[in-house]
Each structure stands twice: as structure tokens, then as C-alpha cells.
Specification:
This protein has 79 residues and is mostly helical. It has a domain of 55 residues. It contains 2 helices and no strands. The N and C termini lie close together (12 Å).
Length: 79
């Protein structure tokens, strides 16, 4: 059972990691982290590296949620 759970986590997190990396490259090829603002319009007072890091983990979380939903939907009812 533990092996199956580990396999499931890897099936969810690894593709999400790769997708987040690609998304990070695409977004920051067009957006300068210094130009990022909050929803209220105030500039974000973080270093470029902090913006890159936080964005990557945000992208990874969203991609992992999508992968988890796909993993759950492909399971059979008897599993």
C-alpha cells in the first residue's frame, strides 16, 4: 500500500514540477519581476529571486492540483 501511495504522489508531482518549470520560463520571458504589482496596484517589494521562487511554487501547486484531479478522475470506482 505504501508503494502505491508513493507511486501516486510521484505520478502527480513530477509532471506538475515539469509543467511549472515550463510555465515559469514562458511567463518570465515576457514579464519582468520588478514590474509585478499586487491586485491593489502597489508594487511588490521583493527581490527578483524571491518573485521567481514564489511564482514557481505557486505554479507547481496549481499544476499539482490539476494533475491530482486527472489522477483521481482516471481511477476506477473499485480502486
Amino acid at each position: 500500500m505504501k508503494e502505491a501511495l508513493t507511486r501516486a504522489w510521484l505520478q502527480i508531482l513530477w509532471p506538475a514540477f515539469v509543467a511549472a518549470g515550463v510555465l515559469e520560463l514562458l511567463v518570465f520571458a515576457h514579464v519582468d519581476p520588478a514590474d509585478v504589482h499586487t491586485l491593489a496596484g502597489a508594487p511588490i517589494e521583493l527581490s527578483r529571486q524571491a518573485v521567481y521562487t514564489l511564482s514557481f511554487f505557486g505554479f507547481w501547486a496549481v499544476c499539482a492540483a490539476a494533475c491530482a484531479a486527472s489522477w483521481l478522475l482516471q481511477r476506477r470506482a473499485d480502486e
